[in-house]
Design brief:
single chain; 277 residues; alpha/beta; Rossmann fold; Alpha-Beta Plaits; 2 domains; two-stranded parallel sheet; globular; binds flavin mononucleotide; binds iron/sulfur cluster
Length: 277
């Protein structure tokens, strides 16, 4: 008789780790980082901030709640700030945040978060910058491929360290330099919000009316009455529309003409869309 092999019973975790990771991402860097953390944290669930805002899903209960987003003008993206203000955080979870960026440490996104969370009686316990590629092409072109590869390698190592710290519920703070300068810069940008998209232009000769710019916009700020995008002056400058356009028909004035467009190599176009076509 052939005896069946008796497999040892796997020891189950005594405590189920319950983690929710909120992400906000226009070109995939933050989605990539959120996914890597999800893989490293058993049972973690990913939620899109743009979708949660659209659907009004504004309450969370978990042992651990994380926020992964890009740094915008040395601070929080406008929709991430809006989301944090509206979010009800139940109980007292371990709260962490990861700000993806091109240049770390120059900024104050975590201080801004702390201010919003303090009003809710909550506190950020872990905060990290994650250097990837700057998608802010009105300032400068996308980094060279070798630079992107080195940053990707370093980012993978840092994500492992971040995940380990989150699992152990460690306190972690990070440098936030030039706070007054960053505050002035960020406030000026925020107060100019209604004019942000006046700089965008669409080249009708390049536009194929594919609709991706409209579908990616987390703000519903693009209408296409005649096929091409018309911006509605309610932009948060995520630059999703500019980077996703397959025919490079969208530009930020003259300055982005001839510059590269960017999407994190592990992220598909469909993963970034707010609205399906
Ligand atoms: C409007 C805007 C402002 C930005 N400001 C900064 C900044 O102050 N510092 C920085 O390092 N990167 C800045 N960036 C670059 C992004 O933070 C960076 O590319 C981020 O990883 C993009 O994440 P995503 O791909 O998830 O959208 C900015 C990008 C945008 C669109
Ligand atoms: S993504 Fe580009 S090609 Fe497609 S509709 Fe928008 S501007 Fe036109
Ligand atoms: S219009 Fe473009 S840059 Fe502005 S919020 Fe929408 S996708 Fe982002």
């Amino acid at each position: 008789m052939i005896e069946k092999e008796i497999k040892p019973i796997q020891a189950k975790e005594m405590v189920r780790i319950s983690t929710i990771i909120y992400y906000y991402s226009a070109t995939g860097n933050s989605l990539y980082a959120a996914r890597e953390l999800q893989k490293a944290l058993p049972g973690a669930e990913l939620r899109s901030i743009a979708t949660a805002l659209q659907k009004g899903e504004l309450s969370v209960r978990a042992e651990c709640v994380g926020f992964v987003f890009p740094m915008h003008y040395f601070g929080l993206p406008l929709q991430v700030e809006e989301f944090l203000q509206k979010l009800t955080i139940q109980d007292s979870p371990y709260l962490f945040a990861v700000a993806t960026c091109g240049v770390p440490y120059w900024g104050k996104p975590f201080l801004e978060m702390d201010a919003v969370l303090a009003d809710k009686g909550q506190k950020l316990q872990g905060s990290w910058y994650l250097r990837l590629v700057s998608n802010y092409i009105p300032y400068r072109d996308i980094a060279a491929a070798w630079r992107i590869a080195i940053r990707a390698w370093l980012a993978r190592r840092k994500l492992n360290r971040i995940a380990a710290a989150i699992k152990q519920r460690k306190d972690h703070t990070t440098w936030q330099l030039l706070q007054k300068f960053c505050e002035r810069y960020h406030s000026k940008w925020k107060n100019n919000q209604r004019q942000i998209d006046e700089t965008f232009q669409c080249n009708p000769e390049k536009c194929t009316s594919c609709g991706l710019c409209e579908q990616i916009c987390p703000r519903g700020n693009i209408l296409r009455p005649e096929g091409q995008p018309v911006w509605q002056h309610n932009c948060v400058e995520c630059l999703g529309c500019l980077h996703i356009c397959p025919s490079k028909a969208i530009d930020y004035g003259e300055i982005t003409k001839g510059r590269q467009r960017y999407r994190h190599k592990t992220v598909q176009i469909a993963d970034l869309l707010s609205k399906r076509g």
